Hints:
By secondary structure, the protein is mainly β. It has helices at about 15-25, 30-40, 45-50, 125; strands at about 1-10, 55-60, 65-75, 80-90, 90-105, 110-115, 150-155, 170-180, 180-190, 205-220, 230-235, 270-275, 290-300, 300, 335, 345, 345-350, 350-355, 360-365, 370-375, 380-385, 385-395, 400-405.
Amino acid sequence: MLVKLNFSSNRPIAHILQAFNAIINDPSITSAATLETAAVAGWASGLRTGLQYSTSEIFRTADESKVRSHLSDTSPTTTDIKWTIQSQVHDAPNSHIYFNMFNTSTTQLQVGLRYAKNDNITSEMSTRNSSPGVDLNVATNTSGTATNIIGAVFVSGPTLLIPSAQFTTITTAWMYLVNDCLILAFTHQQPNLLTGFGNTYNNSAYYTGPFIFSQYDRYDNYNTDTNSIAPLMYTNLAKTTVGAGFGGGYGLTDWSRVENVNASAADTAFRVAHLVNINPSTTQSFPILSNEQVNWGSGTRNTSQYPLTTQQVGVSTDASALTMGRLIHTTAFTKFPSADLLTEGFGMLPLRWSNFSKNNIGGVARGGIYIFNGEYSPGDTFTYNGKSYMVWPTWSGYSDRVGLAIPKE
């Protein structure tokens, strides 16, 4: 499911979360036209204020049968909204990963991530859900009942997706949701945009995201559900740049620098829920670590030793010389040959994590997403291997020719 909600005026985060939850739980909403029908019939007027159906978009053809959404507000005195996404672990159907976005006041929006084995709250995700007919941006209104989520917490506050100053300035809200991937992005203070993306990036007053929460295919034989490891990689929510999203560490582009996963400062692009520390040890067991920083890249290249934009040609007389090509090309108009060498196009790179310092090969993100490397304007669409994609800008914008290719399904 790919959702773009476009507004003609600044909207509060409470309305955005309510709208996302209502859309996910109403299978009749498959387009902007059916969104308008459902909203007019059953949504509170506050949720519909400023919503531009003609420039909003919904694509809903992918499988989402293994994901559930729940939202509740149980406090009549404060804005106390909690939005929960339950995602079945792709290779362990009795285990689930939980994404929680909640605000305990008008100035706190936190993210929590949990992993639960053999839990049984799937029915609660529906029976305790809130109604879109109640405007939860009104402090005295309540709706829904909190779910009894169990499991290990591997991320909890005070992480922030967007700064508190932008809680009420959302003009376009983006969500990509399939069984094993959730991605969010927000445009602020730029109403009535046709594409939903403005011209200002690297500034959380105008753009926050994309925030990636994706399950991955496991590459290490000790990375298993049996060992209580949740296969989830996600945007590093502890960066000092609030709302930076992918591509924004300390105002730099993550692909143009070496990332030290062992640094005390949380400056890498991604983290994972768990990994096993396989460093040489005198003990007979190895600890499972949570919320660990990791390197990212594609194929055999990652950010652990060289920037992804680096090309190095080894000297033939040096036995240890290393020759490698660039993974990310920031030079204008660079293209790549097709497999049959008859055509040329842009880069579509599978997103992979690794942590070699702790001997983890890692895994590749699921959900059908790719790192896009080429010229684009935010919101561009194209076809690749018979599937349509939309390009979302990274935190640094499109000047470096790096974006996120999202399936339109």
